[in-house]
Amino acid sequence: MSELTFKNEYFSIEDTLTCGQVFRYKKISETQYEVYSLDKRCVVKTQDGIAVFTTDAPEYFEKYFDLERSYEQIATRLSCYPELEKAVKACKGIRILRQNLTETIFSFIISANNNIKRIQGIIERLCEKYGKKMDGYYAFPTIEELRQATVAELKALGLGYRAQYIYDTARTVESILPQLEKCTDVDTARKILLTQKGIGPKVADCIILFGLNLTKTYPVDTWIFKANKTETLDTPKKVHDYFIARYGDDAGIAQQYIFHYERNVRNLADIAKL
DNA sequence: ATCCAGGCAGATG
DNA sequence: CATCTGCATGGA
Questions:
Q1: Is A40 an active-site residue?
Q2: d(Cα A241, Cα A6) in Å, to the nearest integer?
Q3: Strand B, nucleotides covered by protein (CB < 7 Å)
Q4: pTM surpassing 0.90?
Q5: pLDDT in tens, A85-107
Q6: Residue A217 contacts residue A252 (beta carbons within 8 Å)
């Protein structure tokens, strides 16, 4: 077990974990979170603005939390857009996690037309049923382990009609992984992802952003659509295209600031300052 | 009871 | 290219 410390104005474990990009985490106390990725666990305590990571896999989680990137530059660039000023100020502690690609693919297939609380429960049950038992938690299932599941078993976990998507994609996804892993171009990655059952435009964007860490993308879910729609931007695709053109390579990060602000912060912020 | 949640597949203009 | 419908589940 080893420890790693990190102090930066542009890192908040709470905002990073609760902004909707990841589902396998637990709040232990006001100052302590646990996050799970594949078969690994990391405990994160924050005191006086200093984050302390305790884990058996320090190199993995240093990369996972994207600690080497300067989010100050990104946040500064995005603050220049008037519509982002408040969201950036409130959410600048978010980092885009470098999550495992396969885990991201299955997690976001489950996320479709679902709510975050339920998604977390389903994924937890999926890990308990098919993942390797670790010391005090369960690993995310491998593709091979997922292929052991029947559609009926998956439905019993609460997957509903997504059970068939998981079943199908568990049998096809390996053939696209090599191309996807080396993909540096969003349009190509998107085209490849859309061949899989259960992956449409929005889920593909999330996988591109959280699993491939390509940021020139803009996932449009119901929250983002409600926040961004106007007279002319009246479909998800129009919103998507407009904000990629506007924010460029920062679009994915801008999207996370907005999503988190709209979903978790705005009401609190408005109440606080009356 | 109806609506909503990090939408998608399949069918039809 | 765009638009429309059906879809599992559970909480508000």
A1: no
A2: 36
A3: 4-9
A4: yes
A5: 999 999 999 999 999 999 999 99
A6: yes
